[in-house]
Specification:
- This protein has 17 helices and twelve strands.
- By secondary structure, it is α+β, with helices and mostly antiparallel strands.
- Helix 1 crosses helix 2, helix 6 runs parallel beside helix 17 and helix 8 crosses helix 10.
- Strand 6 and strand 7 form a beta hairpin.
- The chain starts with a helix and ends with a strand.
- The strands form four sheets. The chain has a five-stranded mixed β-sheet. A three-stranded antiparallel β-sheet has the order 4-12-9.
- It has one domain: Orthogonal Bundle (Cytochrome p450), CATH 1.10.630.
Protein backbone atom coordinates (compact mmCIF):
# COMPACT_ATOMS: atom_id res chain seq x y z
CA UNK A 1 0.00 0.00 0.00
CA UNK A 2 1.29 3.52 -0.75
CA UNK A 3 2.65 5.68 2.10
CA UNK A 4 0.59 8.22 4.01
CA UNK A 5 -1.73 5.60 5.51
CA UNK A 6 -1.81 7.29 8.89
CA UNK A 7 -2.92 10.65 7.50
CA UNK A 8 -5.55 9.01 5.30
CA UNK A 9 -6.80 7.22 8.39
CA UNK A 10 -6.89 10.44 10.44
CA UNK A 11 -8.79 12.25 7.70
CA UNK A 12 -11.58 9.64 7.43
CA UNK A 13 -11.08 6.39 9.35
CA UNK A 14 -14.23 4.70 8.06
CA UNK A 15 -13.48 5.47 4.42
CA UNK A 16 -9.85 4.46 4.90
CA UNK A 17 -10.73 1.03 6.28
CA UNK A 18 -13.49 0.48 3.71
CA UNK A 19 -11.33 1.45 0.75
CA UNK A 20 -8.37 -0.53 2.08
CA UNK A 21 -10.42 -3.72 2.43
CA UNK A 22 -12.04 -3.34 -0.98
CA UNK A 23 -8.77 -2.58 -2.74
CA UNK A 24 -6.39 -4.95 -0.96
CA UNK A 25 -8.63 -7.79 0.20
CA UNK A 26 -9.24 -9.59 3.47
CA UNK A 27 -5.66 -9.14 4.72
CA UNK A 28 -4.40 -5.67 3.87
CA UNK A 29 -0.95 -4.52 5.01
CA UNK A 30 0.09 -0.93 5.64
CA UNK A 31 2.09 1.09 8.16
CA UNK A 32 1.39 3.79 10.71
CA UNK A 33 4.87 5.27 10.94
CA UNK A 34 7.15 2.44 12.09
CA UNK A 35 4.17 0.28 13.13
CA UNK A 36 3.31 -2.55 10.72
CA UNK A 37 -0.48 -2.95 10.55
CA UNK A 38 -2.82 -5.54 9.01
CA UNK A 39 -6.52 -4.99 8.43
CA UNK A 40 -8.27 -8.38 8.75
CA UNK A 41 -11.74 -8.62 7.25
CA UNK A 42 -12.58 -12.33 6.87
CA UNK A 43 -14.87 -13.71 9.63
CA UNK A 44 -12.99 -17.00 10.15
CA UNK A 45 -9.68 -15.16 10.51
CA UNK A 46 -11.28 -12.77 13.00
CA UNK A 47 -12.53 -15.78 14.97
CA UNK A 48 -9.03 -17.23 14.93
CA UNK A 49 -7.56 -14.01 16.35
CA UNK A 50 -10.22 -13.45 19.00
CA UNK A 51 -10.94 -17.06 20.01
CA UNK A 52 -8.84 -19.92 18.67
CA UNK A 53 -5.41 -18.25 18.82
CA UNK A 54 -6.24 -15.53 21.33
CA UNK A 55 -3.18 -16.36 23.43
CA UNK A 56 -0.91 -15.11 20.66
CA UNK A 57 -2.40 -11.62 20.80
CA UNK A 58 -2.66 -8.77 23.28
CA UNK A 59 -4.75 -5.62 23.28
CA UNK A 60 -4.01 -3.09 20.57
CA UNK A 61 -2.62 0.43 20.62
CA UNK A 62 -5.94 2.17 21.29
CA UNK A 63 -6.65 0.09 24.40
CA UNK A 64 -3.11 0.64 25.64
CA UNK A 65 -3.73 4.37 25.30
CA UNK A 66 -7.08 3.90 27.06
CA UNK A 67 -5.21 3.24 30.28
CA UNK A 68 -4.74 6.99 30.59
CA UNK A 69 -8.49 7.21 31.27
CA UNK A 70 -9.60 3.74 32.34
CA UNK A 71 -6.60 2.63 34.36
CA UNK A 72 -6.04 -1.11 34.67
CA UNK A 73 -9.68 -2.13 34.41
CA UNK A 74 -11.08 -5.19 32.70
CA UNK A 75 -10.98 -3.60 29.27
CA UNK A 76 -7.27 -2.77 29.45
CA UNK A 77 -5.84 -5.46 31.75
CA UNK A 78 -3.87 -8.37 30.32
CA UNK A 79 -2.84 -11.90 31.26
CA UNK A 80 -3.42 -13.19 34.81
CA UNK A 81 -4.69 -9.80 35.97
CA UNK A 82 -7.40 -9.82 33.30
CA UNK A 83 -8.45 -13.40 34.14
CA UNK A 84 -8.64 -12.63 37.86
CA UNK A 85 -10.68 -9.46 37.33
CA UNK A 86 -13.04 -11.22 34.96
CA UNK A 87 -13.65 -14.00 37.50
CA UNK A 88 -14.48 -11.41 40.12
CA UNK A 89 -16.67 -9.21 37.96
CA UNK A 90 -18.54 -11.83 35.90
CA UNK A 91 -21.08 -12.56 38.68
CA UNK A 92 -22.12 -8.91 38.68
CA UNK A 93 -23.62 -9.40 35.23
CA UNK A 94 -25.42 -12.67 35.89
CA UNK A 95 -28.97 -12.76 34.64
CA UNK A 96 -30.61 -12.18 38.02
CA UNK A 97 -28.65 -8.97 38.55
CA UNK A 98 -29.39 -7.67 35.04
CA UNK A 99 -33.06 -8.37 35.67
CA UNK A 100 -32.81 -6.33 38.84
CA UNK A 101 -31.35 -3.42 36.90
CA UNK A 102 -34.17 -3.58 34.34
CA UNK A 103 -36.55 -1.66 36.59
CA UNK A 104 -34.12 1.27 36.63
CA UNK A 105 -33.82 1.14 32.84
CA UNK A 106 -37.59 1.22 32.30
CA UNK A 107 -38.14 3.77 35.05
CA UNK A 108 -35.72 6.28 33.57
CA UNK A 109 -37.02 5.66 30.03
CA UNK A 110 -40.59 6.24 31.22
CA UNK A 111 -39.67 9.49 32.94
CA UNK A 112 -37.81 10.63 29.82
CA UNK A 113 -40.70 9.89 27.48
CA UNK A 114 -43.16 11.60 29.83
CA UNK A 115 -41.27 14.91 29.76
CA UNK A 116 -40.98 15.12 25.96
CA UNK A 117 -43.42 17.59 24.39
CA UNK A 118 -45.18 17.07 21.01
CA UNK A 119 -43.29 18.67 18.16
CA UNK A 120 -40.11 19.06 20.18
CA UNK A 121 -36.97 19.44 18.09
CA UNK A 122 -34.49 17.16 19.87
CA UNK A 123 -30.75 16.73 19.76
CA UNK A 124 -31.35 13.01 20.01
CA UNK A 125 -27.70 12.10 20.61
CA UNK A 126 -27.55 14.38 23.62
CA UNK A 127 -30.94 13.18 24.85
CA UNK A 128 -29.95 9.51 24.68
CA UNK A 129 -26.66 10.35 26.35
CA UNK A 130 -28.49 11.98 29.26
CA UNK A 131 -30.86 9.02 29.54
CA UNK A 132 -28.17 6.35 29.59
CA UNK A 133 -26.09 8.48 31.96
CA UNK A 134 -29.00 8.48 34.41
CA UNK A 135 -29.37 4.71 34.07
CA UNK A 136 -25.69 3.90 34.52
CA UNK A 137 -25.60 6.35 37.42
CA UNK A 138 -28.30 4.42 39.25
CA UNK A 139 -27.13 0.92 38.35
CA UNK A 140 -23.44 1.65 38.95
CA UNK A 141 -23.72 4.02 41.90
CA UNK A 142 -27.25 3.44 43.28
CA UNK A 143 -27.47 7.20 43.41
CA UNK A 144 -28.80 10.04 41.34
CA UNK A 145 -25.87 11.56 39.44
CA UNK A 146 -28.04 14.16 37.73
CA UNK A 147 -26.35 16.83 39.80
CA UNK A 148 -23.09 15.81 38.17
CA UNK A 149 -24.63 15.01 34.77
CA UNK A 150 -23.37 18.00 32.78
CA UNK A 151 -19.89 17.77 34.26
CA UNK A 152 -19.69 14.02 33.71
CA UNK A 153 -21.00 14.20 30.16
CA UNK A 154 -18.62 17.00 29.17
CA UNK A 155 -15.69 15.29 30.88
CA UNK A 156 -16.45 12.01 29.10
CA UNK A 157 -16.56 13.85 25.77
CA UNK A 158 -13.19 15.48 26.45
CA UNK A 159 -11.66 12.20 27.61
CA UNK A 160 -12.98 10.20 24.66
CA UNK A 161 -11.61 12.81 22.25
CA UNK A 162 -8.14 11.70 23.28
CA UNK A 163 -8.52 8.40 21.47
CA UNK A 164 -8.28 10.26 18.18
CA UNK A 165 -4.58 10.69 18.96
CA UNK A 166 -3.93 7.05 19.85
CA UNK A 167 -2.09 6.22 16.63
CA UNK A 168 0.10 9.32 16.41
CA UNK A 169 3.73 8.16 16.26
CA UNK A 170 5.37 8.98 19.57
CA UNK A 171 2.06 9.77 21.31
CA UNK A 172 3.24 8.17 24.58
CA UNK A 173 5.93 10.86 24.86
CA UNK A 174 3.80 13.69 23.47
CA UNK A 175 1.00 13.00 25.96
CA UNK A 176 3.33 13.90 28.84
CA UNK A 177 3.97 17.38 27.46
CA UNK A 178 1.83 20.41 28.46
CA UNK A 179 0.08 20.48 25.08
CA UNK A 180 -3.53 21.79 25.15
CA UNK A 181 -5.05 18.60 23.69
CA UNK A 182 -3.47 16.39 26.35
CA UNK A 183 -4.01 18.86 29.18
CA UNK A 184 -7.75 18.76 28.40
CA UNK A 185 -7.74 14.96 28.59
CA UNK A 186 -5.90 14.93 31.93
CA UNK A 187 -8.34 17.44 33.41
CA UNK A 188 -11.27 15.37 32.14
CA UNK A 189 -9.95 12.31 33.95
CA UNK A 190 -9.57 14.31 37.15
CA UNK A 191 -13.19 15.48 36.92
CA UNK A 192 -14.45 11.93 36.42
CA UNK A 193 -12.26 10.64 39.22
CA UNK A 194 -13.80 13.10 41.67
CA UNK A 195 -17.27 11.71 41.04
CA UNK A 196 -16.28 8.03 41.19
CA UNK A 197 -13.96 8.31 44.22
CA UNK A 198 -16.66 10.19 46.11
CA UNK A 199 -19.09 7.30 45.61
CA UNK A 200 -16.48 4.69 46.55
CA UNK A 201 -15.68 6.61 49.75
CA UNK A 202 -19.38 6.80 50.62
CA UNK A 203 -19.74 3.04 50.15
CA UNK A 204 -16.62 2.27 52.19
CA UNK A 205 -17.90 4.48 55.01
CA UNK A 206 -21.29 2.77 54.89
CA UNK A 207 -19.70 -0.65 55.10
CA UNK A 208 -17.58 0.38 58.08
CA UNK A 209 -20.67 1.60 59.89
CA UNK A 210 -22.89 -1.40 59.14
CA UNK A 211 -20.31 -4.06 58.21
CA UNK A 212 -22.39 -4.69 55.07
CA UNK A 213 -24.89 -3.11 52.76
CA UNK A 214 -26.95 -6.13 51.70
CA UNK A 215 -29.87 -4.07 50.46
CA UNK A 216 -27.90 -2.31 47.76
CA UNK A 217 -28.09 -3.48 44.19
CA UNK A 218 -25.49 -1.28 42.57
CA UNK A 219 -22.29 -2.24 40.85
CA UNK A 220 -19.95 -0.25 43.09
CA UNK A 221 -21.28 -2.05 46.18
CA UNK A 222 -20.91 -5.35 44.32
CA UNK A 223 -17.34 -4.46 43.35
CA UNK A 224 -16.58 -3.75 47.01
CA UNK A 225 -17.92 -7.18 47.95
CA UNK A 226 -16.38 -9.10 45.04
CA UNK A 227 -13.78 -11.78 45.78
CA UNK A 228 -11.75 -14.07 43.56
CA UNK A 229 -13.61 -17.41 43.68
CA UNK A 230 -10.35 -19.29 43.06
CA UNK A 231 -8.52 -17.65 45.98
CA UNK A 232 -10.14 -18.15 49.42
CA UNK A 233 -7.71 -15.63 50.95
CA UNK A 234 -8.60 -12.86 48.53
CA UNK A 235 -9.39 -9.61 50.36
CA UNK A 236 -11.08 -7.85 47.51
CA UNK A 237 -10.20 -4.92 45.30
CA UNK A 238 -8.39 -1.77 46.31
CA UNK A 239 -10.12 1.59 45.88
CA UNK A 240 -7.97 2.21 42.80
CA UNK A 241 -8.99 -1.09 41.21
CA UNK A 242 -12.65 -0.41 41.95
CA UNK A 243 -12.20 3.03 40.42
CA UNK A 244 -10.69 1.50 37.27
CA UNK A 245 -13.48 -1.07 36.92
CA UNK A 246 -16.17 1.50 37.65
CA UNK A 247 -14.72 3.89 35.07
CA UNK A 248 -14.69 1.10 32.48
CA UNK A 249 -18.32 0.15 33.20
CA UNK A 250 -19.27 3.84 33.29
CA UNK A 251 -17.86 4.55 29.85
CA UNK A 252 -19.04 1.31 28.24
CA UNK A 253 -22.49 1.43 29.81
CA UNK A 254 -23.09 5.04 28.94
CA UNK A 255 -21.38 5.94 25.68
CA UNK A 256 -22.02 2.78 23.65
CA UNK A 257 -25.71 2.39 24.49
CA UNK A 258 -26.41 6.08 23.96
CA UNK A 259 -24.91 5.92 20.48
CA UNK A 260 -26.71 2.67 19.63
CA UNK A 261 -30.05 4.21 20.59
CA UNK A 262 -29.39 7.46 18.72
CA UNK A 263 -28.50 5.59 15.52
CA UNK A 264 -31.60 3.42 15.94
CA UNK A 265 -33.90 6.46 16.05
CA UNK A 266 -32.08 7.87 13.03
CA UNK A 267 -32.69 4.69 11.02
CA UNK A 268 -36.32 4.34 12.10
CA UNK A 269 -37.02 7.93 11.03
CA UNK A 270 -36.43 6.88 7.42
CA UNK A 271 -38.04 3.42 7.56
CA UNK A 272 -41.82 3.74 8.08
CA UNK A 273 -42.52 0.07 7.28
CA UNK A 274 -39.96 -1.11 9.84
CA UNK A 275 -41.34 1.32 12.39
CA UNK A 276 -44.94 0.22 11.75
CA UNK A 277 -43.97 -3.41 12.40
CA UNK A 278 -42.24 -2.33 15.60
CA UNK A 279 -45.39 -0.59 16.81
CA UNK A 280 -47.49 -3.64 15.92
CA UNK A 281 -45.24 -5.88 18.01
CA UNK A 282 -45.30 -3.50 20.97
CA UNK A 283 -49.09 -3.31 20.86
CA UNK A 284 -49.41 -7.09 20.60
CA UNK A 285 -46.88 -8.06 23.29
CA UNK A 286 -47.39 -5.23 25.77
CA UNK A 287 -51.06 -4.33 25.20
CA UNK A 288 -50.44 -0.79 26.44
CA UNK A 289 -48.54 -1.62 29.63
CA UNK A 290 -44.97 -0.58 30.38
CA UNK A 291 -42.45 -3.26 29.31
CA UNK A 292 -40.68 -5.46 31.85
CA UNK A 293 -37.64 -7.69 31.67
CA UNK A 294 -39.86 -10.74 31.12
CA UNK A 295 -41.00 -9.18 27.84
CA UNK A 296 -37.51 -8.94 26.35
CA UNK A 297 -37.47 -12.48 24.82
CA UNK A 298 -40.90 -11.87 23.29
CA UNK A 299 -39.90 -8.61 21.59
CA UNK A 300 -38.19 -10.31 18.64
CA UNK A 301 -38.68 -7.52 16.10
CA UNK A 302 -37.62 -4.89 18.64
CA UNK A 303 -34.35 -6.75 19.19
CA UNK A 304 -33.96 -7.24 15.42
CA UNK A 305 -34.21 -3.46 14.96
CA UNK A 306 -31.41 -2.93 17.49
CA UNK A 307 -29.32 -5.71 15.93
CA UNK A 308 -29.61 -4.17 12.48
CA UNK A 309 -28.84 -0.71 13.83
CA UNK A 310 -25.63 -2.03 15.41
CA UNK A 311 -24.76 -3.76 12.16
CA UNK A 312 -24.91 -0.54 10.17
CA UNK A 313 -23.59 1.74 12.92
CA UNK A 314 -21.65 -0.43 15.40
CA UNK A 315 -20.81 1.59 18.53
CA UNK A 316 -17.50 -0.31 18.67
CA UNK A 317 -16.48 0.19 15.06
CA UNK A 318 -12.92 -1.16 15.21
CA UNK A 319 -10.69 -3.20 17.49
CA UNK A 320 -7.01 -4.09 17.45
CA UNK A 321 -4.67 -6.76 18.72
CA UNK A 322 -0.88 -6.73 19.03
CA UNK A 323 0.93 -9.88 17.88
CA UNK A 324 2.84 -11.49 20.76
CA UNK A 325 4.45 -14.26 18.69
CA UNK A 326 4.67 -14.96 14.97
CA UNK A 327 1.38 -16.15 13.53
CA UNK A 328 -0.07 -17.10 10.15
CA UNK A 329 -3.26 -15.50 8.88
CA UNK A 330 -4.68 -16.69 5.60
CA UNK A 331 -1.37 -18.29 4.67
CA UNK A 332 0.60 -15.09 5.32
CA UNK A 333 3.24 -14.84 8.05
CA UNK A 334 2.56 -12.07 10.56
CA UNK A 335 5.58 -10.97 12.58
CA UNK A 336 5.76 -10.36 16.30
CA UNK A 337 4.76 -6.83 17.38
CA UNK A 338 2.64 -6.23 14.29
CA UNK A 339 -0.81 -4.77 14.88
CA UNK A 340 -3.91 -6.48 13.49
CA UNK A 341 -7.09 -4.46 13.17
CA UNK A 342 -10.59 -5.84 12.73
CA UNK A 343 -13.26 -3.31 11.80
CA UNK A 344 -16.90 -4.01 12.56
CA UNK A 345 -17.76 -1.16 10.21
CA UNK A 346 -16.13 -2.99 7.31
CA UNK A 347 -17.22 -6.56 8.06
CA UNK A 348 -20.80 -5.61 8.97
CA UNK A 349 -21.21 -4.01 5.54
CA UNK A 350 -19.54 -6.73 3.47
CA UNK A 351 -21.95 -7.81 0.66
CA UNK A 352 -20.66 -11.40 0.87
CA UNK A 353 -22.41 -11.76 4.23
CA UNK A 354 -24.98 -9.00 3.96
CA UNK A 355 -26.87 -8.72 0.63
CA UNK A 356 -27.68 -5.09 -0.16
CA UNK A 357 -25.56 -4.15 2.86
CA UNK A 358 -26.45 -0.45 3.05
CA UNK A 359 -30.16 -1.22 3.47
CA UNK A 360 -31.72 -1.09 6.93
CA UNK A 361 -33.48 -4.47 7.09
CA UNK A 362 -34.16 -5.96 10.54
CA UNK A 363 -35.66 -9.04 8.84
CA UNK A 364 -32.06 -10.22 8.44
CA UNK A 365 -32.19 -11.10 12.14
CA UNK A 366 -35.20 -13.38 12.06
CA UNK A 367 -34.18 -17.04 12.57
CA UNK A 368 -34.94 -18.04 8.99
CA UNK A 369 -32.49 -15.46 7.62
CA UNK A 370 -29.57 -15.48 10.02
CA UNK A 371 -28.51 -19.12 10.38
CA UNK A 372 -26.19 -19.31 7.36
CA UNK A 373 -23.92 -16.34 8.15
CA UNK A 374 -20.41 -16.88 9.52
CA UNK A 375 -20.25 -16.35 13.27
CA UNK A 376 -17.87 -13.39 13.08
CA UNK A 377 -19.60 -11.60 10.24
CA UNK A 378 -21.18 -9.72 13.16
CA UNK A 379 -19.24 -8.95 16.33
CA UNK A 380 -20.50 -5.70 17.92
CA UNK A 381 -19.31 -6.84 21.35
CA UNK A 382 -16.02 -8.40 20.27
CA UNK A 383 -15.45 -12.07 21.00
CA UNK A 384 -13.52 -14.72 22.85
CA UNK A 385 -12.18 -14.24 26.37
CA UNK A 386 -12.36 -10.47 25.98
CA UNK A 387 -15.96 -10.32 24.76
CA UNK A 388 -17.79 -7.42 26.42
CA UNK A 389 -18.74 -8.58 29.90
CA UNK A 390 -21.80 -6.32 29.89
CA UNK A 391 -23.30 -7.69 26.67
CA UNK A 392 -26.45 -9.04 28.36
CA UNK A 393 -26.88 -5.73 30.20
CA UNK A 394 -26.55 -3.82 26.91
CA UNK A 395 -29.07 -5.96 25.02
CA UNK A 396 -31.59 -5.75 27.84
CA UNK A 397 -31.19 -2.00 28.13
CA UNK A 398 -31.44 -1.33 24.39
CA UNK A 399 -34.56 -3.45 23.90
CA UNK A 400 -36.32 -1.98 26.93
CA UNK A 401 -35.45 1.61 26.05
CA UNK A 402 -36.61 1.20 22.46
CA UNK A 403 -39.85 -0.49 23.54
CA UNK A 404 -40.65 2.00 26.29
CA UNK A 405 -40.03 5.13 24.22
CA UNK A 406 -41.55 3.84 20.96
CA UNK A 407 -44.80 3.11 22.77
CA UNK A 408 -45.31 6.85 23.15
CA UNK A 409 -43.23 8.54 20.43
CA UNK A 410 -41.98 8.33 16.90
CA UNK A 411 -39.22 10.59 15.60
CA UNK A 412 -39.03 12.20 12.17
CA UNK A 413 -36.33 14.04 10.29
CA UNK A 414 -38.55 17.12 9.78
CA UNK A 415 -36.24 18.85 7.30
CA UNK A 416 -33.04 18.23 9.22
CA UNK A 417 -30.09 16.79 7.27
CA UNK A 418 -28.86 13.30 8.02
CA UNK A 419 -26.16 13.13 10.70
CA UNK A 420 -22.52 12.49 10.00
CA UNK A 421 -20.42 9.80 11.66
CA UNK A 422 -17.87 10.72 14.31
CA UNK A 423 -15.58 7.70 14.77
CA UNK A 424 -13.73 8.00 18.04
CA UNK A 425 -13.56 5.26 20.66
CA UNK A 426 -17.22 4.72 19.77
CA UNK A 427 -19.13 5.62 16.62
CA UNK A 428 -21.10 8.73 17.49
CA UNK A 429 -23.73 10.49 15.35
CA UNK A 430 -23.00 14.18 14.86
CA UNK A 431 -25.73 16.65 14.05
CA UNK A 432 -28.64 14.28 14.66
CA UNK A 433 -31.81 16.27 15.29
CA UNK A 434 -35.26 14.72 15.16
CA UNK A 435 -38.80 15.92 15.77
CA UNK A 436 -40.93 14.14 18.38
CA UNK A 437 -44.39 13.12 17.17
CA UNK A 438 -46.82 11.46 19.60
CA UNK A 439 -48.29 8.13 18.61
Amino acid sequence: MPGGAYWAFRKDPLAFFTDTARTHGDLAAFAFGPQQVYLVSRPEWIEDILVKSAGKFAKGVALERAKALLGNGLLTAEGPQHLKQRRMIQPLFHRQHVQGFADAMVGHATRWRDQVTPGADLDITREMSALTLAIVGETLFSSDVQGDADEVRDALADAVSGFAYAFIPGVATLSKLPLPMFTKIRKARERLDRVIHRVIAERRAGQRQSQASPGRLDLVSMLLAARDPENPDDTGMSDQQIRDEAMTIFLAGHETTANAMAWTWHLLASAPAVEARLHEELASVLDGRIPAVADVPKLEWTRAVVSESMRLFPPAWTMGRRVLEPHTIGGHAIAKNALVIMSQWVVHRDPRWWPDPERFDPARWLPSSSASRPRYAYFPFGGGSRVCIGESFAWTEAVLLLATIAQRWRFTRSGHPAPTTEPRITLKPKGLRLKADPR
